[in-house]
Amino acid sequence: MVGKKKAAMLLCTVLVGGILAGCGKSATDSNNGGAASSAVKNIGVIQLVQHDALDASNKGFVDGLKEKGYEEGKNIKIEQQNAQGEQANAQTIAKQFTDAKKDLIFAIATPAVQAAYNSTKDIPIIFTAVTDPVKAEVAKDWKSSGTNVTGTSDKVPVDKQIELLKKLLPNAKTVGVIYNTSETNSVTQVDELKAAADKQGLAVKEIGVTNVNEINQNLASALGQIDVLYTPTDNTVASGYALVGKLCLDKNVPIIGAEEAVVTKGGLASIGIDYYKLGKEAGYKAAEVLDGKKPSDVEISTLSDMSFTINTDVVKKLNITLPADIESNCKKVTGGVE
């Protein structure tokens, strides 16, 4: 009888131990599941090339995420990669991010988002500094992309820039436009420029380049045929703003730019967008996606507020008289004049 009692007690001990062990395992599994659900999100950034506008967009994106509760070193890990202006590099980076199964890819500039979209149709992609995502064939519509892509566009009203040009330079007859002929966003802007210029009675001379090294020769040979140069939001040209500014100032040719960075490098004026704000808006959209929204449910947007900038050093060098309404309402900068 005693033997049976001992056996029964031993059996109970084993059973209780097993149950406790099972409970312990269950608790551990549950904890692991919770950790997985709150795991650090991995974000890959493809920046096409380094220049002021794209750098500002990149910083704005990180700051926008932080404002929405996603901070580097806490709940997100950001891997920054720069394609150095080469489409092939952008494609390689995009494949690396896809193979690494990043939680989200941030693409800065049109060739970067095209590379990312060509690499994955599953990983969410947020873009910025892309003029027309539909023409770039990464979205089917602005309101709902219908793809794994959304973001913020740097599309600006070219007609407003031409109006500014005419107001500052009423005697101008021919406007040159320098751009990379292989950048979809730039081709779109040049088409819009030609339509806007025609309405104002301006002739347009296209100055095409395919890389930064061609700027010197191609622009220098065209300066004698134009009264003013227009620079769209072109990544190749933006990388060479200092050279563009010097070449134009040497020949007393004013520059009207689609974004502020060219003005600090010797351009005359710009009416365009703030790329830091544009990047921050992209950061907000990325936070929505990380929170669980599909990219196709997040509308692609542009910035409505424009920044108006004048380089007072260039105004003096070129002996330009600013209309009173422009002088009182613009942001004044200096630089680019030797």
Automatic annotation (TrEMBL):
Signal peptide (UniProt feature, chain positions): 1-21
Matches recorded under PROSITE patterns: PROKAR_LIPOPROTEIN (PS51257)
Pfam families tied to this protein: ABC_sub_bind
Keywords annotated in UniProt: Signal
Keyword Iron-sulfur: no
Listed InterPro entries: ABC_transpt-TYRBP-like, Peripla_BP_I
The UniProt record lists the keyword Amino-acid biosynthesis: no
Coiled-coil region list: none
Protein name, as recorded: ABC transporter substrate-binding protein
